[in-house]
Amino acid sequence: MTRSALDRGSLDALQGTLATEHAALWCYSLAVAFLPGDQLEQARRDEVAHRALRATLERMLAAAGVPAVSALPAYAPPQPVTDGRSAAALVVVAEGDTLAAWRSLIEHTSDRELRRTALGVLEDGTLRCARWRTAVGTRPAIPPFPGRR
Predict the structure, then answer these.
(1) If you average pLDDT over residues 9-30, what whole number do you get?
(2) In this predicted structure, what is the pLDDT of residue 2?
(3) Does domain 7-136 fall into CATH 3.30.70.2190?
(4) What residue ranges do the domains of the chain occupy?
(5) pTM value?
(6) What does the pLDDT look like over 45-65, one tens digit per residue?
(7) Are 91 and 27 within 8 A, CB to CB?
(8) Cα separations (Å) of 84 from 5, 41, 43, 103, 125?
(9) Which of 10, 33, 86, 121 has the smallest number of CB atoms closer than 10 Å to its CB?
(10) Mean pLDDT taken over the chain
(11) Are 10 and 89 in contact (CB under 8 A)?
(12) How far, in Å, are 25, 28, 132 from residue 46 at the CA level?
């Protein structure tokens, strides 16, 4: 199935996943202002990964002839971010949200290439999320079903 032949469910899931990647990037941009040096480099690497994922989603939507959903100017973190610990906790939320979106993409498409891509992202994202969950002391580091809420 070519990108231009994606069904409405796949396209809607792509848009939802893109919206979640936009939010994750906003969260990382806030978090890096508070993270200590030992976590700062990891956060910057993870932010680069999310930028690449966002670009991939935008390319997929463009190939399908669909305008990509825009990022919001700001997002409301679930709790105030005031220090390194709360910044790392925000990143845990962002990673969990993106895992849920990519998992939902798998559930809402029958396109094999798209499902394969999303599965790879779930694998990488689970490792990113585990690092941050470990940093804030959340157990288990890897939940039994990553991306499931």
Answers:
(1) 98
(2) 42
(3) no
(4) 7-136
(5) 0.93
(6) 999 999 999 999 999 999 999
(7) yes
(8) 45, 13, 12, 28, 21
(9) 33
(10) 94
(11) no
(12) 9, 8, 10
CA 122 – CA 99 distance, rounded (Å): 6
Burial 26-57 (b: 16+ CB within 10 A, else e): bbbebbbebbeeebbebbeebbebbeebbebb
**76-101: b or e for each residue (b if 16 or more CB lie within 10 Å)?**
ebeeebeebeebbbbbbbbbbbbbbb
**What amino acid occupies position 130?**
A
Tell the burial category of 16 from Cβ atoms under 10 Å away from its Cβ (0-12, 13-18, 19+).
middle
Write the DSSP symbol of residue 72.
P
pLDDT tens string 58-86: 999 999 999 999 999 999 999 999 999 99
Tokens at 82, concatenated: 């005031």
At 126, the amino acid letter reads: T
Phi/psi at 15 (nearest 5 deg)? -65, -45
